[in-house]
Amino acid sequence: MKAKDVMLRIALIALVAISLIFTWIIWFNPAHLEHRATSNVSVKTATQSTTKKSKDTVYLPVAIYQQKDGSKHRLINDTHSMSGLMRKAMKAARVNKAKTVKTLDADQYAALLKQDNTVQMVYSDKMSWHLFNKTFFTKGAKHLGGEFEFTRIVVNMRHETVTLVNDSTRATRRLTFTTGPDYGKIAKAVKSANHKYLVEETRMHGREVALYPDGLEVQPFAYLVDSQGANHFVALLMGNKSTSTVDSKQNGDQTIYTVNNNNQRLTADKNDGQMRFDNFTTDGPKKTRQGVLTDAYNQMMTLQPAGMEGVRFTHYDTDEMTVTFRTYVAGLALFNQTMSGTVAVTRTNSSLSIEFSGANLSVPVPTRETPVKLPSTSTVLANVRAKGFTNSQIEDVQAGYRWEKDDDSTLVIDLVPTYYVCIAGSYYDYSDIMSGDVTTTTVAAKTSTGVNSGKVNSSGALTTP
């Protein structure tokens, strides 16, 4: 790293430290304390507004495609969320109703996805219509109708229509509007993209997967990391209980905090900051997808996460009853060998668990790193197959970021562009497959024992021993 970059990072870190010191001084100034009692109402109102705004962004699509002139491109904006810009352009519309379902055959569905002059907003897993109606638009549908699930929003710019699509079942529902979207604003949002990557979609295990035939150039990033210790989360999750005593004990590298006769437990790993909160006196799961996703969001917010701008819903595992949220940076998912950037909420009939990390992204740090050229997806898949993995094992492939500790500062995290390949239910870094750290033997052993130590499972959460 260049000396000038190092000095720039050190200066920024110093400024942040000074800011924290002044914040502490202001917070504990007696004059400030005198006004705290009178500011509760405004603080509560602001918090409620922030919470609603966060929920609206968490349940946005994770990718935006433009189909035009016979080809499809993924749209990326380095500084703004493309899905956020699309929602901003469309939120004033009001749905009248979702029309009767129409299920397409494979050829009809392929034709729909390749329909020219369309903008397509894609989720990584099935979205609830009722939740979408509540969070995407300012006013809910005039006639809400029954619940259904979809994975894609297809906006036809030529015919000015909006269709909700389920990639898995190929079911489609056209929306009618009492107040239609402003298609001029949608076109303006599309033009704001400063990167357009050629994509071709192919079907893998019942879902559409984006392939990059020309590869893609991805900008590395560096971020200051916001780190919170276990005591912070003990106070948040266990501090308001009837008992004032929180017991703790050491078990190897893990510290286990318990309260209420072990009915609530927080486990923290000192090596990687990974934590898990368990509550064994809780209600069972909600009955609807909207209820499950809303409850999972509410549980995540009990952690009071520092930054929510890039956090998105990514998966709901109906077998494990786990909802996973993942951080996205410049449109691409952030993966890690621990839970950093990820929150997984599991609610069963007998317990609630929240898996998360005390370390999360804070603010970007200036960097002069040049873009990384990633190979075409076909090259990646061919190389993975050459290592002995079969098409039936390969379930997904994504371009994303790997979380790495910075060489120069423990306060900085580097985001390194790479591919992640989902094999037998877990995502593996493409570079680890190529280096031989991940092999057919190690994957088979972990799959047979149910252990995927340090790897990311198909829900986006980590599977741990």
Automatic annotation (TrEMBL):
Where the record annotates domain Regulatory protein YycH, the positions are 10-427
The portions of this protein that span the membrane are 7-27
The record, for InterPro entries, names:
YycH (IPR009996), YycH/YycI_2 (IPR042274)
Recorded hits in Pfam families, A to Z, give: YycH
Q: Which UniProt keywords apply?
A: Membrane, Transmembrane, Transmembrane helix
Its name, as the record gives it, is Regulatory protein YycH domain-containing protein
Natural source organism: Lacticaseibacillus sharpeae JCM 1186 = DSM 20505
